[in-house]
């Protein structure tokens, strides 16, 4: 899920700060444990206020949180040691009760920016940027994972279900089970799980695997991820995995062993709500305005990503630059929206400079006064505005080097109520398995990317429609509610 590092800050004294009424003895029957809370502190007109930070995961969780004693445990995005007046967590903003895991600025630097985003993130994305292995950031990762696990152990009712999310918290399942063997623990990884050849680089590879094996169910976007995990449990821990499960020694279990299941649960979006948004007259009008603002081109292409080196923004800009050089991009405009992300991490700063330079060169070489073939927005858009861009675009460009799923591809499809539009999609996304009717590309093959873009731009409407109808069927029959329900159903004892 998109990680927000918004720089908003405040103070806090306790290591967890409660919101909403706690049930007696803080005994929640369902816990979501996630690096980030679904609210954040935002600064407006010199004041800080708590705002909901909606996202795919919040939407997915809403139906499962409703009507039960549930709590969401996570970090708020503020640094507790900053000298800004304290703001207690709000009572009524989240989809359920909220509990904050408090982090200092240094802890965020070491645990989140360091181990999560300079080690795990690049390693799990095919090492497209070289991962760094620092013992002090690993120590912080262990310490913060323990803090999350201790808080969950305190909050959970006997026999409660705990759903732990993503790469920031891979040690939590085991740390939690050690304290609370009565809990049902599910874990879902939102990014790819790498093949053994890469994973074995990690100096702490056994601890990470053992951390994940504390869960009853470990979910991935793809079968490939689940298979990598099971293979590694054999290679590094000497276990004997079966097709979709592995038994791990567990003295607390009557048989001396506990079965951990691993499987593919491809995440999706709230397809209906995107489609409804795209159908709104204001959104459609805004889409027409966007087209007209860029000169009503023959073809409007679009990219929407967090500004991240895994997303292959450079791949598509490179392809378009060559098409411009060759005179094959006449009367076409590409809009690239790149949401600021992880701006304190050095590789992201480098990436930002590189993209700025690519956009600048393309405009300098091929633009005219008032007309630029590439339009670049380095700023987040409101959800309605984003939907208008999806409606406006003839061709959507999704070209990551590696991506767990990629929700943008599915959002574009859900917004194409007229069943037109074309999706160029990297083979190395989880989404490519769900949407094989897209124009699939190998992002490392520069000529292949160019040709796929040209093919998508020039395909007959009937071909585009045929592909889009199939993709829409997939996205509407497999929405995010179904994803959450499938996972939780499989997790049930
Ligand atoms: C991770 C995995 C996996 C982007 N810009 C704006 C905006 N967004 C929204 C998109 C989409 C989300 O952010 C990005 O989701 P992705 O799936 O594309 O990518 P990650 O952030 O890397 O997510 C990924 C996902 O987790 C879920 O498991 O699919 O593979 O890397 O929803 O719409 N939203 C708004 N304005 C923007 O400017 N409102």
Explain what the structure shows.
The protein is of the alpha/beta class. It has two domains: 2-267 and 482-491, Rossmann fold (3-Layer(aba) Sandwich); 271-477, 3-Layer(aba) Sandwich (Rossmann fold), CATH 3.40.50. It is built from 17 helices and 17 strands. The chain has helices at 56-65, 105-124, 135-155, 172-179, 196-199, 205-212, 223-237, 271-279, 281-293, 313-325, 346-366, 383-392, 407-415, 431-434, 446-458, 461-477, 480-491; strands at 16-18, 28-36, 39-44, 47-52, 70-75, 97-101, 156-165, 184-188, 217-220, 245-249, 257-264, 299-306, 332-339, 374-377, 395-398, 422-426, 439-441. The strands form three sheets. A nine-stranded mixed beta sheet has the order 1-6-5-2-7-8-9-11-10, with helices on both faces. Strands 14-13-12-15-16-17 form a six-stranded parallel beta sheet, sandwiched between helices. A hairpin with a 7-residue loop joins strand 10 and strand 11. Helix 1 (56-65) packs across helix 17, helix 8 packs across helix 13 (407-415) and helix 10 runs parallel beside helix 11 (346-366). The longest helix has 21 residues, at 135-155. The two termini are 27 Å apart. It binds GDP-alpha-D-glucose.
